[in-house]
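Q: What would this chain look like folded?
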Amino acid sequence: MTDSKQKVIDFTPMYASHDAFRRDLERLAAAVAEGRAATPAVHAGWENFKHQLHIHHTAEDGELWPRVRERVAGRPSDLALLDAMEAEHSRIDPLLAAVDAALAGRAAELPDLVRALGATLDDHLKHEEDSALPLMRDVLTPADWAGFTGRMRRTQGLRGAALFVPWITDGAPAADRAAFLGALPPPVRVLNRLFWESGYRRKGLW
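A: My prediction, written as structure tokens:
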């Protein structure tokens, strides 16, 4: 495909979302190790993590993978990669449910479940970054990518964006924070600076 497509499609928000998922599971693991798993702050962080992951994976399954699948019809290895992406999503869901149940019951297996969830999700995210994103860069048009990001925006809505944007930047290195915010429209950056970040901090997640 053309170099122009590679320049137009910006995966910065995708990488930033992946980093935020990893960060939250690291925070959950630390909370479990420190005996804080039953606190309201940890439960609030966990609920937000699940919410953000659900929106992310639902948009991928419903909007992104079908678009890629159309472009790679007749290419068995690429279709197998997409099958793997969807299968990996399905393996994550039971682990989320198991951690949920363990958090509610303070089960002894909670540390092992959190480690299993972290490893499974990290393997999936790395597989996506190493293999699926390069494929998307090759076969998707800017309009395809806009369809996916538009699905995300519609699902989040303005209220969801007010949580999503500062959640992404929470604890991010300065360069990563600047790259993510730089990919957003200027009005969103203003709203985040003036209102959203302070509202997010008041929630006291984790």
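The CA atoms of residues 30 and 36 lie 8 Å apart.
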